[in-house]
Amino acid sequence: LGLALYVGSFLIYMMLVAKNNLSYLTPVSTAIVYILTMLVAVVVLKEQMSLLQWGGWCLILVGALLMNLKR
Fold first, then answer.
1. Percentage of the chain exceeding pLDDT 90
2. What is the DSSP letter of 45?
3. What is the C-alpha separation between 31 and 4, in angstroms, rounded?
């Protein structure tokens, strides 16, 4: 299962790289990974996040949204 997910994510990333600039894609994809990781930690693993961590999550989200508005 892990190998299949890894191959799938690699193929998706290669399709995105073929259609977008890497200077745009790298920060946006990194932000999405951070956001999804934090959401999974809270929802699935029942992790507790402090107010400071939620603030960081919001800043990352705003940055990813601003990168998409620019385009």
1. 55
2. S
3. 23
What is the total residue count of the chain? 71
Percent of the chain with pLDDT over 70: 97
Separation of first and last alpha carbons in the chain: 35
| Residue 32: alpha-carbon gap to chain centroid | 1
Cβ 29 vs Cβ 64: under 8 Å? no
Give how far Cα 40 sits from Cα of 3, 17, 33, 68, Å. 20, 26, 11, 23
pLDDT band at 70 (very low <50, low <70, confident <90, very high): low
The answer to whether 27 and 59 have CB atoms below 8 angstroms apart is no
69: helix, strand or coil: helix
The CA distance from 59 to 43, in Å, is 20
